[in-house]
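haha ok so turns out i had the wrong file open the whole time. this is the CORRECT one, sorry everyone. sequence first:
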Amino acid sequence: MVFQLKRLLYFPIASYFRFFAAIRLQRWHPRIVVVTGSNGKTTLLHMLESQIGGKAKYSHHANSAFGIPFDILDLQRKTLLKTEWIGLFLQAPFHAFKNPPKENLYIVEADVDRPGEGKFLGELLRPEVVLLASISKTHSMNFDKLVEQKKFSHVEDAIAYEFGYFLEYCQKLAVINGADVLEASQKDRTKAEIRVVIKSDLQKYELKKDGTLFAFAENTYRFPFLFPEEIFYTISMCKMLTEYLDIPFDPKFSRFSPPPGRGSVFQGIKDIMIVDSCYNANLASMTAIIAMYEKFPGDEKWAVIGDMLEQGNGEKEEHEKLAELLAKQHFKRIIFLGPRVKKYTYPKLQSLSHEKISLDVFLNPREVLDFILAKSKGGETILFKGARFMEGIIENILKDKKDVAKLSRREKIWEIRRKQWGL
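then structure:
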């Protein structure tokens, strides 16, 4: 009942904040770039910031029908607790008439969590440029009803159509992923110029223990982070935008650091190497990260794999596909965490796996932490990918506790929830 009420009130309440955000946006009148897609958009936002710097304002930690109006109005949710809402409602009218930001360029990360969100945000932003990184089955549970109502044949089509609103409202330039069939299905909705990033642009991809190399015809890019091959689309889109804006491009990405939980590498206790890609997961992002990790040099490779949330009617199918993907890898140990991977992925992988691979499954992240502490002999590389407070596990096995600040979900509400799980 409470969940249904939240769904019914989501856009009416968001419209209150959008009304005042539109006033401030009209007074500000910046050039707007929307960075969107199911996967890769936050990394792209950080890459753009490393190139463009103080010439733009960026919508960090704000990509929804609430978050973006809050960002425009300079309203901040610091704790994510319910008590913040009273102040937000009272402040919104006054913030609409504050002096607008000094930057004349606004780079906005925008997501589509539910039907109507792409249209809601597209109408507000009417971007000059759209960078559409990818489209895949994310937040699927919110789109299942559109398939049940026979408005779309598949949930992917419903999600793609919602992302397509950003193309529809785009004014001048849309950059899309040429390998993404779902993106291609929406490109006719825009009157803007379309530029396509294609895989043949990438000549070499190389993964080493100390980072990742991407070689293009015109340049080679090296990062001290572990990135999947698909990041080359992100690099290309970043370069295209700087050229469009006539801003100098730094091929060394010297000011870049990835957002938390997306390919960061940390030194752990017992000489464990931690690969932190735990922030959220769907089958597309799982596929990219697991393929990357398979290429990673090392003999003692472990993976902690968590649930893929909000998969809706496709939950069983997506988690069984994950098992089929993992069956092709050569990891020494896979630790499953969560009710979905326990119910679907673990038994499916047991039936598929023909190699000597250790499989373990837990429901509680504290149990996973205790298991790693007990079973690690030292020197392992451990990949973390999926839901269920994995950042709390990582926090407890870091060698340098200062690295905690580089992990995801640092807000008060997440600290409270991790403690409830014994982390």
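The longest strand covers residues 202-208.
again sry for the mixup
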